[in-house]
TrEMBL record:
Protein name: tryptophan synthase
Ranges where the Tryptophan synthase beta chain-like PALP domain occurs: 81-418
Keywords per UniProt: Amino-acid biosynthesis, Aromatic amino acid biosynthesis, Lyase, Pyridoxal phosphate, Tryptophan biosynthesis
Record flagged with keyword Lyase: yes
EC nos: 4.2.1.20
Example of a GO cellular component annotation carried by this entry: cytoplasm
Cofactors: pyridoxal 5'-phosphate
An example Gene Ontology molecular-function term: tryptophan synthase activity
Catalyzed chemical reaction(s): (1S,2R)-1-C-(indol-3-yl)glycerol 3-phosphate + L-serine = D-glyceraldehyde 3-phosphate + L-tryptophan + H2O
Pathway(s) annotated for this protein in UniProt: Amino-acid biosynthesis; L-tryptophan biosynthesis; L-tryptophan from chorismate: step 5/5
Signal peptide: none
Length: 456
């Protein structure tokens, strides 16, 4: 064991970040703006304000301020579960026999079981400050809905969650956690919205999708006095809030006198990865340091590695603004055997631009390989990881094994975004040996691309 480096490094509460870092301020090529789907002109603050809270709109459009103050009320809530530990994975290093140093930043130590609470509490705070009655949102696997219901309970806001129907049925316990925090949970598509009824009429018996649940949640927010819509990933504001992960990591590394060479994160909509890498990417963009950044996505939902960089709809009902991103098309739905989360069709426009500028790499991994890594990690490091997080574990292990071959002592940091207690159906499939992989064919993907809007 490296004497100077403890197994866990916790910052003091007083060392926690007081400002979020906005990586767009240091990007030469800014992410493309959101477009109004009717006029194809950039969305104005007024237009966005119909859907989102005013301060969040400001943050969404802010590409120039590198640092934005974290209000004290949010920092107080952060103290209930932060700072999160930076862990040196000594046991994993030993088991792999690698000369690499492996670190992970663990975001699973709160009831929502993931990093999503970092943005949920911020979004609930701004909604409350604006005097709103409540917020609406969608949730897939349920982590975001849980995080938001916790945040809304704290600030006394109503919370309406549209939950992808298949998850609603398969994850009754997630649903009950949300209800315990006071949220109402509706399976999507539902009969409660125009867009839900339309989708049900066109696709009877559909098990739902994130894109569809987003459309329903937006419709309800826009049509209900005193409500706005909030989103748990993809948006620039969410990456901004999640920068607390990277800022704490950077501060801990500086305290230890260490520096990562490779930074790895799983990528669904891109919020944890964007948050983890932001301050390090800032150093790279300013020419102060260099790092390798690796986004890891499922082979069954490969938006970065096989998607197109184009303007696309963010939701199935096409009620949201258009975003330029690496996308598989808003009609893309991963094959039914896909269990590992990270199933959104597009990627954060900030990360998409960084990837297009070759400042970040991306790889895709098959889910049986992901669950092998999850099981190995659980047995060696003790934490039962979320399937999403296990994508990053997979690639961290692969990179550490490469170091074993070459004898290089690289320092690897990965984001362990959450725990997997509610994913036992997927673990059961893996344990029973019946989990399968499906990689979409080019023909499968062509169908999704055919639905891209025509934007010059
Ligand atoms: C939601 C979630 C993700 C993926 O979302 P991003 O916005 O890409 O970070 C990853 N891990 C966990 C545990 C999650 O709940």
């Amino acid at each position: 064991m490296d004497k100077n480096i403890p197994y866990k490094t916790y910052l003091e509460e007083s060392e926690m970040p007081k400002q979020w870092y906005n990586v767009r301020a240091d990007m030469k090529n800014k992410p493309a703006p959101l477009l109004n789907p009717q006029t194809l002109k950039p969305m104005t603050a007024e237009e966005l304000g119909v859907v989102f809270c005013d301060e969040l709109v400001e943050q969404e459009l802010n590409t120039t301020d590198a640092y934005i103050d974290i209000p004290e009320e949010i920092r107080d809530f952060y103290k209930m579960y932060r700072p999160s530990p930076l862990v040196r994975a000594y046991c994993l290093e030993k088991a792999l026999g690698t000369p690499a140093k492996i670190y992970y930043k663990f975001e699973g130590n709160n009831t929502s079981g993931s990093h999503k609470l970092n943005s949920a509490i911020a979004q609930a705070y701004y909604a409350k400050k604006q005097g709103l009655k409540g917020v609406t949102t969608e949730t897939g696997a349920g982590q975001w809905g849980t995080a938001l219901s916790m945040a809304c309970a704290y600030f006394g806001l109503d919370c309406k969650v549209y939950m992808v129907k298949v998850s609603y049925e398969q994850k009754p316990f997630r649903r009950e956690v949300m209800r315990t925090y006071g949220a109402s949970v509706t399976p999507s598509p539902s009969e409660t919205t125009n867009v839900g009824r339309k989708i049900l009429a066109e696709h009877p018996g559909t098990s739902g999708s994130l894109g569809c649940a987003i459309s329903e949640a937006v419709e309800v927010a826009v049509g209900t006095e005193g409500y706005r819509y909030v989103l748990g990933s993809v948006l620039n504001q969410v990456l901004l809030h999640q920068s607390v992960i990277g800022l704490e990591s950077l501060a801990a590394f500086e305290k230890l006198g260490e520096k990562p060479d490779i930074i790895i994160g799983c990528a669904g909509g891109g919020s944890n990865l964007g948050g983890l890498i932001s301050p390090f990417m800032g150093q790279k963009l300013r020419g102060e340091a260099d790092y390798r950044f690796i986004a890891v996505e499922p082979a069954s939902c490969p938006s970065l590695t096989r998607g197109k960089y184009a303007y696309d709809y963010c939701d199935t009902g096409m009620v949201c603004p258009l975003a330029k991103m690496y996308t598989l098309g808003s009609g893309f739905i991963p094959s039914a055997n896909h269990a590992g989360g990270l199933r959104y069709h597009g990627m954060s426009s900030t990360l998409s631009q960084l990837y297009d500028d070759k400042l970040m790499e991306a790889v895709s991994v098959e889910q049986t390989k992901v669950f092998e890594a999850a099981q190995q990690f659980a047995r060696i490091e003790g934490i039962l990881p979320a399937p999403e997080s296990s994508h990053a574990i997979r690639v961290a292990i692969d990179e550490a094994l490469k170091c074993k071959e070459t004898g290089e002592e690289k320092t690897i940091l990965f984001g362990l975004t959450g725990t997997g207690y509610f994913d036992m159906v997927a673990y059961q499939k893996f344990n029973d040996g019946v989990m399968t992989d499906y990689i979409p064919t080019d023909d499968d993907l062509a169908k999704g691309f055919a639905g891209l809007p025509k934007v010059d």
